[in-house]
Design brief:
about 525 residues, mainly alpha, 3-stranded antiparallel β-sheet, disordered N terminus, TGA_domain, Ankyrin_rpt-contain_sf
């Protein structure tokens, strides 16, 4: 059985990433253009901005995973699966672009996987997954699905899964693996040379002070390291190109439904390692303030987290600072609010805890309460001066919309967060809801001031998003809101015209008054 190809690799220079990839659904005469994701992007991205981007990106990945699973449970057309594969590729391309842009600011941060858990970073190669891992995953899925579907295969039932890879597909996978292995080794060998060169004479001369001094000028050391860091960035970009190329060629081999199954497995593997890494990290996450797994419940943070108001009062009576921070910049108020312990929240505020304090990620106690769905705690904080000051509010709102977490989004808006805040692509939450949400969600945002005429960085409005995704119920809501908004704008223009064209003598009484004054002057 021969499966239709869904990807055409047009150019080997992968820096154009999405612009050079088109997906062909079976029997489709016109390729689906992936679009140029690199257009209009600045040359670099700050590390804090990259971290914020990544948090939003992960949320969008969750939404894509749900969409893929739903499609696989209720299979539609090959064109439908091809569209989903295209979305996933574009999503991955955005991450590649962001990493490359961030590498211009600090290539060591990106290549070391510093934004990941230690487990994930330890398994990374040049700031990401080894390209050969993608091929191994395909073979592993094939083996697992053959075991699971063996009886159906023996009965001659035709299945569109990794279990039915043809001989031609397997041969092409083998060719991809050989090419990828060669390129990986070339990059790894050049990296080993670069690592050895950190001990060359130029670097040693710059790092050995005569006499040694802590105040020695690090500019000399930085100058010595500059060519090494430039070389590291070049290798990193080559590694990213290879990752993109591997995905492109892999999707060229698989059918649309096979590619969808593959992507689901890849995302699930990544999320499993992330969760395991977090568990490892939590097991040894002690800090200078005494918060650790071995000392659970013995300090003011754990007491606030547990909601033991009696012990919290005793701790504060002993003179502990209610605004003291832990290694993550979190105060006891953050922890109490995040768990919805209203009595503890009230006690901490009464004792002078800073209400609008932000942790290392810019999160306030109010935001923790809103995230946890603790409306009473959130209301108390707002009544006592808490501001809806959300760091990267647009990203938070769009992430909530993309994950389908409308309860959190509604809490943010009702707390005073502007629904017209935008994410890194100038999208508002209404853009996200228009494409993936319900008419009810759209009505809520419009009712609370969301701008139906807002445009993202590509010039698309929420109406465009709803129309492109055939979200008809939401589209009707938005079109009605657009008509109302345009009528309001027209009314404002009419009012402005009337005001600008008015004369001080338009009123008859005013004319009479002026004539009377003139008559009085004549009489004088």
């Amino acid at each position: 059985m021969e499966f239709p190809l869904i990807v055409d690799v047009i150019d080997e220079d992968m820096m154009g990433d999405a612009a050079r990839l088109t997906l062909y659904p079976s029997k489709a005469k016109v390729p689906i253009d992936m679009g140029d994701e690199t257009e209009s992007k600045p040359s670099y991205l700050s590390i804090p901005s990259f971290r914020r981007f990544h948090n939003v990106w992960v949320g969008q990945e969750d939404a894509l995973l749900s969409e893929l699973k739903a499609a696989l449970e209720n299979p539609t057309t090959e064109q439908g699966f091809a569209r989903l594969v295209r979305k996933c590729y574009q999503h991955f391309s955005e991450a590649v672009n962001a990493k490359i842009r961030a590498s211009h600011e600090d290539v060591t941060y990106v290549t070391s996987g510093a934004w990941k858990t230690p487990l994930e970073a330890g398994l990374m190669w040049m700031g990401g997954w080894r390209p050969r891992t993608a091929i191994v995953l395909a073979y592993s899925l094939m083996g697992i699905q053959i075991e699971n579907e063996l009886q159906q295969l023996l009965e001659g039932i035709i299945l569109q899964s990794m279990a039915t890879l043809t001989a031609k597909q397997l041969a092409r996978l083998d060719a991809i693996q050989q090419y990828t292995s060669t390129k990986e080794k070339e990059i790894s060998n050049r990296l080993s040379v670069l690592q050895i060169l950190v001990a060359d004479q130029q670097t040693i001369r710059a790092t050995i002070a005569d006499p040694p001094s802590e105040s020695s000028n690090m500019a000399v050391t930085r100058d010595a390291m500059e060519p090494k860091l430039t070389g590291l960035q070049d290798l990193f970009i080559e590694a990213e190109k290879l990752r993109l190329r591997t995905l492109q060629e892999l999707f060229a081999v698989l059918s649309p439904i096979q590619a969808a199954q593959y992507i689901v497995a890849a995302i699930q593997v990544a999320k499993a390692f992330c969760k395991l890494g977090e568990q490892f990290q939590e097991a040894h996450s002690g800090d200078a303030n005494g918060r650790s797994s071995r000392d659970s419940g013995s300090n003011v943070w754990d007491i606030a987290f547990q909601g033991d108001v009696k012990r919290l009062r005793e701790a504060l009576d002993m003179g502990l600072d209610p605004s003291d921070i832990d290694y993550e910049g979190r105060t006891p108020l953050h922890l109490a609010a995040g768990k919805g312990h209203l009595e503890c929240v009230a006690l901490l505020v009464e004792r002078g805890a800073e209400i609008n304090v932000k942790d290392n990620d810019g999160v306030t106690p109010l935001l923790d309460a809103l995230k946890g769905g603790h409306d009473e705690a959130a209301k108390f904080l707002r009544n006592n001066g808490a501001r809806p000051d959300v760091k990267d509010a647009g990203n938070e709102l769009c992430k909530a919309a993309a994950c389908g977490d409308m309860e959190f989004l509604e809490r943010l808006v009702e707390a005073g967060v502007d629904p017209n805040e935008t994410d890194y692509s100038q999208r508002t939450p209404l853009h996200i809801v228009a494409a993936e949400g319900t008419a009810k969600d759209a009505e809520f945002l419009v009712h609370n001031g969301a701008d139906v005429l807002a445009k993202d960085r590509h010039g698309y409005t929420p109406v465009d998003e709803a129309r492109d995704t055939n979200n008809n119920a939401t589209l009707r809501v938005l079109e009605a809101a657009v008509l109302q908004r345009q009528q309001e704008l027209d009314d404002e223009d009419d009012t402005s015209d009337e005001t600008s064209s008015s004369s001080p003598f338009d009123n008859k009484d005013d004319v009479d008054m002026v004539l009377t004054e003139e008559d009085q002057c004549s009489a004088c």
